Amino acid sequence: MTEEEEMVVTPWEVSGKIDYEKLIQQFGTQPITDELLERLKKHTGKLHLQLQRKLFFSHRDLDWILDRYEAGQKFVLYTGRGPSGPVHIGHLVPWIFTKHLQDAFDAKLIFQMTDDEKFLVHPELTLEKSVGFTYDNALDVIAVGFDPEKTVILSDVKHISAQYEIAIQVAKRVTFSTVKAVFGFEDSSNIGIIFFPAMQAVPCFLESALTGKNVPCLIPAAIDQDPYWRVTRDIAPKLGYYKPAQIHCRFLPGLGKGGKMSASLPETSIFTTDTPEDVERKIWNAFTGGKPTEREQKKLGGDPAICTIFYYFYYLFEESNDRMEELERECRSGENICGDCKKILADRVNLFLKEHQRKREKARNIVEKFFIK
Amino acid sequence: MTEEEEMVVTPWEVSGKIDYEKLIQQFGTQPITDELLERLKKHTGKLHLQLQRKLFFSHRDLDWILDRYEAGQKFVLYTGRGPSGPVHIGHLVPWIFTKHLQDAFDAKLIFQMTDDEKFLVHPELTLEKSVGFTYDNALDVIAVGFDPEKTVILSDVKHISAQYEIAIQVAKRVTFSTVKAVFGFEDSSNIGIIFFPAMQAVPCFLESALTGKNVPCLIPAAIDQDPYWRVTRDIAPKLGYYKPAQIHCRFLPGLGKGGKMSASLPETSIFTTDTPEDVERKIWNAFTGGKPTEREQKKLGGDPAICTIFYYFYYLFEESNDRMEELERECRSGENICGDCKKILADRVNLFLKEHQRKREKARNIVEKFFIK
Known about the structure:
- Two copies of one chain form a homodimer.
- Chain A is of the alpha/beta class and 373 residues long.
- Chain A has 17 helices and nine strands.
- Chain A is 50% helix and 10% strand.
- The longest helix of chain A has 26 residues.
- The relative contact order of chain A is 0.13.
């Protein structure tokens, strides 16, 4: 492990080689067991690829959510996005899964755009830009196919009036000590970002506050966001609400070496608005498990375990288990070289993006319908 | 001074015997000089009683506000109220003066109800109660006679959408270190109250943000609120706005011994909704400079310098300087005993309250007109 960077996973930073077993231990969450998968399957039919492949791998109280559901009590889904730039494919992963849950459980979705957070965290980001990304990114959310009748998108900045009353009820019960310990805030942190954990808690309780009933909430999100809702879970009973349940996914790696896909490294991220040429170039330059020369690779084979191209097939672009096994064998044996895989992946990504971009343009006509009234 | 309590003046607590000279030094503000009073008089005509009697005694940049005004640039007024209970006469003092400034300078007034702050600070106060006091207290504000065409009342909770964008722009530039030093926040403080100083800054910049022009702002308020705007003044230039100017008043003492009038000591406060009997009882039990027995007082005289009744005449209920001198002489000589003064004051307070209560009831019909749209 000497040449690996140290693993860092916080809501602000994800870097190094991620050890997911260790994350479950560190964060104190539960692994998604085969038994739980069987239970989910009863409700969803075929198991979603992201569950089959354990992209979603950890949870809090998912079993309890199913208890409630089986007892006839519906839950709301909550996920979100910090709009500090354009959306890349990594962002779509939990959204695609969330849409699957919306369809399978006929659930309302609350989607929070934390444009206040991004403005408060990034020194150079203006409020106008941050809110601009909210509107831009909402097109990607809608393009995923959420039901307009059952989905609301909230901008923290533009829809604060729907959120502030709940936020200050949360904030009253969370001390600086707590957010210092959980998020590593310091005396030099600004007072906006110190308040922000209260904002990220709001959608957990919004449906309950609106309906006057206690409505369970399930949050599909990348595991780095877990600390927010750990704090939320602690104070939920004090407000008379259920603790939000969570289902956690891995990070889709960037096309570079290590870490999650990040908009701050644009050449290692495939944005939803990239042209086919962008996609080809980025994939062509991706980090793989290949050998330095074609001759060596044909002789010794590649290592799919560290290959970003392989990850993309596995988590998003190759549904067939048989074909995945074949791809792995062809790589290890040297039968396929990296260029072969890159070409197949680029075609699939471009096929996917062509459709996404079409839906994204159509979303412009209905985006206002999705924002909370 | 051995029997005096220590002077404590913060936005949360005012107690002990207040030394106003020392406050000017401690807070680093400017005294209102005779020269400045002369300058004000040119615009306001007769000098307002609260300036004559130096109830308003300190300022920041009041001279600069007059420079701007004389150069043809109008300013907005900003004051407010933390609605944690009913309004007492002490609260009306700066409002009455603010109305005078509104009339004299034809100025728009922004009146902020910090119902979020009160909810966040008082463990037992619910959000419903705090917002309820906003609506109740607004009746008292309106009864003071502000121009409905030039006055907006903001509830932080109910009108957050008009304020949040400015608040987070302020918050981004204020660290926990700063609010710790200025307000004495600690690690055990809740994250809502840590954010709150950003909310109290908002009305300083609201008119500028709404009009896209840089509009000077003058804040008449009790001096204990100065720390909020000291922080605001520090960051104003970073946002491209003028620093808010201030004019500070003393605290109207309660009817007990020492400190300001406080709703938490109801028998020492005259509430705007008190009955004539309440007023008589409270004034009858007030702390005065009288002697233990009538015989002693007739012989030795009383001490108006420590008498709360005398304060009330001086700051609110006796406009004539000649009559004030007479009252002082009659007290010191033993010519009048406390009961005489109490009777006169109770009559005047009840006369004032009768009229205030009439206007307060009428305000119910127009209160919605005052709230920001």
